[in-house]
């Protein structure tokens, strides 16, 4: 096992080194762009929508985005109410509503790679994210970060750091509202504003997304697909760490519950991996991540971001000519990718079933708002 860990670390070190070399190029390109814009002195800086609110759909930007796609044929399913909504009673036929009937259609729910923990963190970036990044760097681990657009524009340097350190970026919407409660046009606004923010700071066009609260049905999927997104849910209740419930739920409960899930998994045939639900939301969630990751490594479970789980050499929508590095040692594979720089600069310059309870556990509070909310209030929401 020691040997295994050592060789997998070596593979990841190679990957990180490659990404660092690539990000130097990105930084250089970005500098050039900025200089050019400054010289022209006509470029207006982007005015972002209000934080943590569904962006208006009547803005020039959203109207232009709506013209780019054809939403005809979107399933006509009534909007749900509540944030997150409760399950419709009676159920809506053929809705394929993951959090209520467990129907995932072609959403990704498990890491495709055997014996692998698909490491993902939702709701960031936050002021506690750098602590997590330091830890992951020390362990030579890479993760996928499901970013909230409102937080991206608040902490763009942290997002850049995530890319520079070899992590993978994905979308968790602009304002963290339940998507089945939003109109098709509002979903477009949520996704494209987040995409634009990440594009502006990193040059990467996001491709994977996780619906807030796991709240996704056939209508939401239809719109996401038109926008080029692949939804990634998670591998069921037992892989929801419930980290966001701290401090109402004690850290020791979070750890002991998740340990049982790891033991069950380690005793299984492990032919597919799993995605777990974790958050880089605050001091507590970042703290517990550093305690549970070693429990996975101790059980010889490989830890990897989405591109490695899914063997996706193009984990961004604009990585068609991506540089991919693959290092494999005894079954451990690490893949890294960089965006097509040409595509980058041109875009930038344009300036109650099983999962029902799980979905309740997906953090209901976007980013910075959480710290203002007492644990008791959060627990109250869970019961709502
Ligand atoms: C660890 O996992 C790898 C594959 O992920 C496997 O090849 C190896 O045999 C495992 N080692 C132990 C000690 O279980
Ligand atoms: C491994 O386990 C899963 C579910 O536990 C089962 O569906 C699958 O058939 C098993 N695969 C093998 C190769 O035994
Ligand atoms: C959380 O905050 C406490 C008190 O400021 C600090 O001692 C601890 O190191 C922090 N933990 C993490 C994981 O940042
Ligand atoms: C790969 O695994 C085999 C058998 O477990 C071992 O003999 C070999 O040394 C390993 N290779 C590396 C590079 O760790
Ligand atoms: C990058 O992508 C753009 C747009 O998709 C394409 O026109 C260009 O040829 C690509 N660049 C390279 C180096 O392949
Ligand atoms: Zn979330």
TrEMBL record:
One annotated Gene Ontology cellular component of this protein: membrane
InterPro entries referenced in this protein's UniProt entry, alphabetically: Glyco_hydro/deAcase_b/a-brl (IPR011330), NODB_dom (IPR002509), Polysacc_deacetylase_ArnD (IPR050248)
Swiss-Prot/TrEMBL keywords: Hydrolase, Metal-binding, Signal
Region spans: Disordered: 314-360
GO MF entry, a single one: metal ion binding
Signal peptide (UniProt feature, chain positions): 1-21
SUPFAM superfamilies: Glycoside hydrolase/deacetylase (SSF88713)
Domain NodB homology: 115-304
GO biological process, alphabetically ordered: carbohydrate metabolic process; fungal-type cell wall biogenesis
The UniProt record lists the keyword Signal: yes
Cross-referenced Pfam families: Polysacc_deac_1
Compositional bias (Low complexity): 317-356
PANTHER family: CHITIN DEACETYLASE 1-RELATED, GLYCOSYL TRANSFERASE-RELATED
Name of the protein described by the UniProt record: Chitin deacetylase
């Amino acid at each position: 096992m020691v040997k295994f860990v050592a060789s997998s670390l070596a593979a990841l070190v190679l990957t990180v080194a490659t990404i660092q070399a690539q990000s130097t190029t990105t930084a250089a390109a970005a500098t050039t762009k900025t200089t050019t814009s400054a010289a022209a002195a006509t470029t207006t800086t982007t005015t972002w929508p209000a934080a943590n609110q569904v962006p208006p759909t009547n803005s020039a930007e959203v109207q232009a985005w709506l013209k780019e796609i054809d939403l005809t044929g979107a399933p006509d399913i009534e909007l749900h109410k509540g944030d997150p909504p409760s399950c419709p009673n009676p159920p809506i036929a053929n809705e394929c509503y993951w959090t209520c009937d467990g129907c995932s259609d072609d959403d990704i729910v498990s890491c495709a790679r055997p014996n692998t923990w698909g490491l993902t963190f939702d709701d960031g970036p936050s002021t506690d994210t750098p602590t997590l990044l330091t830890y992951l760097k020390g362990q030579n681990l890479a993760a996928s970060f499901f970013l909230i657009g409102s937080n991206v524009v608040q902490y763009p340097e942290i997002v850049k750091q995530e890319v520079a350190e070899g992590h993978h970026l994905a979308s968790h919407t602009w304002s963290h509202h339940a998507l089945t409660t939003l109109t098709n046009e509002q979903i477009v606004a949520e996704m494209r504003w987040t995409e634009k923010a990440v594009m502006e700071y990193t040059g990467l066009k996001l491709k994977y997304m996780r619906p807030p609260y796991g709240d996704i049905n056939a209508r939401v999927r239809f719109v996401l697909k038109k926008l080029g997104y692949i939804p990634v849910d998670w591998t069921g209740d037992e892989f929801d760490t419930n980290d966001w419930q701290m401090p109402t739920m004690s850290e020791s409960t979070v750890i002991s519950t998740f340990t049982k899930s790891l033991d069950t998994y380690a005793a299984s045939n492990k032919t597919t991996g799993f995605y777990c639900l974790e958050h880089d939301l605050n001091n507590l969630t970042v703290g517990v991540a550093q305690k549970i990751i070693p429990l996975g490594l101790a059980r010889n479970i490989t830890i990897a971001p989405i591109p490695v789980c899914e063997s996706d050499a193009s984990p961004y929508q604009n990585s068609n000519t991506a540089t991919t590095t693959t290092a494999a040692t005894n079954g451990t594979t690490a893949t890294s990718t960089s965006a097509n720089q040409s595509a980058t600069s041109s875009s930038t310059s344009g300036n109650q079933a099983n999962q029902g309870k799980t979905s309740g556990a997906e953090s209901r509070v976007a980013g910075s708002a959480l710290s203002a909310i007492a644990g008791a209030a959060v627990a109250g929401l869970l019961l709502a």
